[in-house]
Amino acid sequence: MRPLAVIGNVNVDLIVGPVAPWPKAGTETVVDHDDLRVGGQAGNTALAWQALDIDFEIAANIGDDQFGRWLREAFGDRAQKWPVCPEGTTLSVGMTHPDGERTFFTTRGHLPRFSLADVLAVLDGNRLSGGYALLCGSFLTDDLTRDYDAFFDWAEAHRIAVALDTGWPIDGWTEANCAAARNWLSRCELALFNEVETTTLAGLASPAEAARKIRDGMRNGATVVVKRGPDGAIAIGSDGKFIEVPAPSVTVIDTIGAGDVFNAAFLAALVQEQSLEDCLSTAIQVASRAISTLPRDYGGPIQFEDAAHERA
To answer: How confident is the model at residue 256 (pLDDT cuts 50, 70, 90)?
Structure first.
């Protein structure tokens, strides 16, 4: 198995709901469900890897408060070198709605202070050589994002393939944000974006055509994966071949972090040398199970030789 790491945003999620319609100002609404849990793209990915019994490393930072200590405890030895910044830990409050959508309110907190120095204090480039590093939360980690060029130089020097999932920009996909994402993708071996992000970045309505256009701007032999929710996923592989895998029909309970779970399962299969089609199948099956269970269930360790088949 090739080495695997995730780099990016770990924060606290407080999920409440369902809420419909939107509450009026000055009122109080009683909801049926609440869940305080580890969140953020990097956090969600790492939780899935833990549940799938995948060996990995995670580079993140935490705030100097009880939430920061709680996040460190959630990842045990893997988090012992996480830097602590003086700001409070980033907190994201998510309200779920009956139609499966959600609304988030997020504090700035500690995430903008996550830096390249923090990454290098946690990860050993020689140990990760020949593996994959998932870079995520790009529009929240201000200090690190400013040093992405240096990060890519470091990864390239250690023969670490970079997978990118930027997450949704706080101010939307402005032309400046699109240009920044395209620039980062030019140095990546793998793109893991959802359908709206893919078509927006490429300026094309067709997800398949948009994926090809994005791949044209990436490193030679790059792979582009487009997550399409209930429609499954598509990919343009390193050989330029188009692959499409449908998703099973499930009763959706909680979609928060679904894309991150997909990323985790996809990379878990990829580092074990599975085919691109099997990587997609694995990712779809694990994510589908996660969003349709409460408490969330990832299905446990995967037998990758049977990854293309849904597990009981």
So the answer is: confident
What are the angstrom distances between the C-alpha of 237 and each of 104, 134, 280?
34, 17, 11
User: In the predicted model, is pLDDT for residue 305 greater than 80?
Assistant: no
CA distance 174 to 191: 19
Q: Given this model, what pLDDT does residue 99 score? A: 78
Provide the whole-model pTM.
0.93
Q: What is the pLDDT of residue 306?
A: 47
Range of the domain at 64: 4-8+41-71+79-87+111-299
* Structure token pair of residue 207: 């997800």
CA–CA separation, 278 and 309 (whole Å): 9
Location of structure tokens 């599975």: 274
Phi-psi region of 17 (alpha: psi -120 to 50; beta: other; left: phi over 0): left
Per the structure block, which two tokens stand in for 150? 């240096």
Give the chain's domain count.
1
